[in-house]
Each structure stands twice: as structure tokens, then as C-alpha cells.
TrEMBL record:
Protein name (Swiss-Prot/TrEMBL): Bactericidal permeability-increasing protein
One BP term from GO: innate immune response
SMART domains (UniProt xref): BPI2
UniProt xrefs under InterPro entries: Bactericidal_perm-incr_a/b_dom (IPR017943), BPI/LBP/Plunc (IPR032942), Lipid-bd_serum_glycop_C (IPR001124)
Swiss-Prot/TrEMBL keywords: Antibiotic, Antimicrobial, Disulfide bond, Glycoprotein, Immunity, Innate immunity, Secreted, Signal
Function, in words: The cytotoxic action of BPI is limited to many species of Gram-negative bacteria; this specificity may be explained by a strong affinity of the very basic N-terminal half for the negatively charged lipopolysaccharides that are unique to the Gram-negative bacterial outer envelope.
Subunit structure: Monomer. Homodimer; disulfide-linked.
A GO cellular-component term linked to this record: extracellular space
Amino acid sequence: QGIVYPGGNYSAPPFVAAPFAVPDQSDSMLYLAFSEYFFQTSSFAYYTAGAFNITITEETCSYFNISTEIFGSVIPEVAQYSVTPYPVMLKLMATETPIISLQQDSFTIEIQGSMEVFAVLPDSSTQLLFTMSIAANTSIAVNIFDQKLMGSLCLNR
């Protein structure tokens, strides 16, 4: 049962380690087990270090061409503010430590966060358009199929 601490910050995590048992099997050469506590402290360390804060700009995300025009078609106030289409910058931030829980054949991640949406103006300054709260609950199931580790991701809400 391991614990992960944020770099340079040795403080007790807000979790209590629960006992867990590894099945007694002897038909394989190697068994690997991770406790829920290991994942919870890892999540806490990453959250404390700011690893769940992401800024998405036009330069960093070539898959999407996000502009005020796109948001203006969904949110009328954005269309009123920005007649000329400007690129958009998104700041995604976790507002609480993500909660990771283990089940028999999968694990669940619950993330609470917020997203700030900015218009990037021609002089490279930014103007806040809106802020929204985000709550996501995702399940991930991991299986070994044809000697390959496979995963499936399901967005629960």
C-alpha cells in the first residue's frame, strides 16, 4: 500500500488508508495490486501541484478552431459582445481533489471543476466571456484481451 506526496510538501493527505486484501492465487508468476489509497493520494498530490489546471489555446489545440463565433451561436450574450470573431482561450481547473474509487472490474473518477472562457483580442490581451462549473463522473474498465491491456472509458455524467 503506497502513498504519494506532492513534491517538496510532506503533509498528511486528507484520506485514511483502508485495509485491502489481495486474493491468494498461485497460478501466475507476477501479481500487481494497487490500493484505492494509492490512487487517492496520487490524485491529491497532482491536485496540490496544479496538474489538473489546463489552458487550451488556439496554438495548443489544433483539433478545434474555437472562436467567439461558435460560442455566440449557443450563448447570445457572447454574440452581442463580439461581432468580430476572435479566437478563444479555455482555462480548465479542478476545484476539488478528484475522487478515485475502485470497483471489482473498473474504477471511477469524479472531478469537480470550473472553466473560464476568454476571447483573445487582436492585441493579445484577453477578455473574460463567461465562467461555468463542471462536474464529471467517469468509469474506466481495464481488461486483458489477446495478451494486450485494453481499457474502455464511459462518461457517466
